Amino acid sequence: MKKILAEIIAEWYRGHKRDLPWRRNPDAYRVWVSEIMLQQTRVEAVKPYYERFLRELPTVRDLAQAQEDKLLKLWEGLGYYNRVRNMQQAAQQIMIDYQGKFPDTYEEIRSLKGIGSYTAGAISAFAYGIPKAAVDGNVLRVVSRITGSRKDVMKQSVRREMEEELEKIIPENAASDFNQGLIELGAIVCLPNGEPRCKECPAAPFCEARKQGTIAEIPVKSKGKARKIEDRTVLVFKDGKKLAIRKRPGKGLLAGLYEFPNEKGHLTLDEVSAYSKKIGLMPVRIKELGQAKHIFSHIEWHMTGYEVIVDELEQTNERGFLFILPEEIEQEYPIPSAFEYYTRYAGIGR
User: Fold this and answer.
1) Which residues are the active-site residues?
2) In angstroms, rounded to a whole number, what is the distance separating the alpha carbons of residues 101 and 122?
3) Is 18 part of any domain?
4) Which residue range forms the structural domain that includes residue 103?
């Protein structure tokens, strides 16, 4: 890419950027929260989570001191809960190593728990104007198309090479506008699926993929490993008022979150009845709730669910069951979005 194009993109961004809450008063903490939330989540979906999180935890100190259940409840629905745990550890690092002041150099930011090169570049450029690149999926696509590159963007070496090349052309005093301009182009113009809006693109005269008619072929991405399929049966136990939930183990998938009891495999109605009796519950009525699917990074859960009305939940001999009113669950107990399909049958709003 050429320096003149970098200046054009920065100028285009100033006139076309969307009004997003994290672009107002972009201090390092606010930028950090938004960037972690925006990983794997659409912009429109993030807005209410972002505003709620900052309302409850407005400073690094608040984040460092938050109770785990509150932290996970604030993150409920965003998924990838290790990200917010890493954020809390990083906030604690900041309190100890930097006396509560967010570090202001790329190297120090990069050293914080859970912060990779993209997030460190974004905070450096957006909050401090430091001329570092912020290369995410949007930027990989945009720059690959502009340059006509057929290098595999899934390789870390390709990402690092792109970061180095972009840092050579960041316009003076415009690190934020240039980086955000590339990201914005990928978000609203140089789209990943369907027809890119080339007529609206300030980089169109410079774009090699457009000249060569190869937009649909770029960027080149190698295929990752196929996800493992896991069948599960979700059980919504009720005794009229309360529901049974349990806390997941402190390590592993969805660590420390709360869930409806569930078992491996797809159980039949008779098997659900037998399981209920085995754990000391007498089913009064069992109703099928249908199928649901949830995709994690390496695993897919294919779920079937049952509502099981029992005479009294407290009779169970199953350790770890908690018997909670739906409104209390909604307020205080973080239920991961993997179970979202079944929350409606439990009387829990999302």
Assistant:
1) 35
2) 18
3) yes
4) 3-217
